[in-house]
Amino acid sequence: MVKMVETEVECCKIVSEDVKDAIVLEGSPELGLIGNILGWLLVEELKMKQIGYIDSKEFPPLAVLYKGIAIHPFRVYSTDGIVLFLSDFIIPPNVSYDMSNAIVDWMERNNSKGLITFNSMVVMEKTGSVAGAANSEEALKKLGELDLPILPFGNVNGLSGSLLTKTAIKNIPASCLFAEVLNQYPDPRAAASLVNVLNKMLNIDVNAQPLLKEADEIEERLKELAKRVQSENEPESPIYS
What InterPro entries would the database entry show (predicted)? Predict the structure, then answer.
């Protein structure tokens, strides 16, 4: 029987198996739902196994249906030296501090090699590029080796920001990858832009095609909706007797 270990802080706890010497990924839904969309792709493509969950009385009353089965809304997955913390809801700001402490405590206990978290940046026009930020000169140098543009200034919101600062305090290398989004709506194409970068960072081979296909379908539906709205708003031709 696999031993489940609890890592508990003031308002939340991690109940999971221990996985030593892994790279930790964090995906939670900020603008564009980038982390959540990419996280689900990794679960499917890498056939990741669920090894635990995070729980808190501050979480919304929510269960997630997956293939007809209700699962916990914030889960922990693992495969071949990679651990993924994946949330299906926006983390309440009052929980982020304690949750980041719990995740970093888990990483310390398991001697995790580092952290990669996913976020987004709002742009006026998409170029398809991915930007990065890090919590140390060492981690920043590794991003530079990938020829990623670095965000020199600004704020990192949500759990990503908390984790970058908490890991820095514990001298755990961490980086954040930013996809370009235009607004708050789900953006599979933006999430797909992170896949090639992540493949290089982790030496894995994840296929972004499912996200690109989903993006095409969403964009086609939006075009049809725009046409329908336009036709409904067009003035009727005058009728002369």
Answer: MJ0106-like (IPR004425), Proteasome_assmbl_chaperone_2 (IPR019151), PSMG2_sf (IPR038389)
Place of tokens 């930007």: 131
**Residue 197: exposed, middle, or buried by beta-carbon count in 10 A (0-12, 13-18, 19+)?**
buried
DSSP letter (8 states) at residue 234? S
CA distance 220 to 227: 11
For residue 3, the SS3 value is: coil
Cβ neighbours of residue 35 closer than 8 Å, sequence gap 6 or more: 26, 27, 28, 29, 86, 87, 117, 118, 119, 160
Question: Which is nearest to 213 in space by CA: 35, 2, 41, 14?
Answer: 41
Structure tokens at 172: 């755990």
On whether the pTM is more than 0.85, the answer is: yes
Q: How do residues 77-121 score in pLDDT, each as one tens digit?
A: 999 999 999 999 988 888 999 999 999 999 999 999 999 999 998
Locate 78 and state its tokens.
Answer: 């693992």
**CA-to-CA dists, residue 24 to 39, 58, 96, 118, 154, angstroms:** 12, 24, 17, 11, 24
End-to-end CA distance of the chain: 85
Beta bridge partners of 174: 115
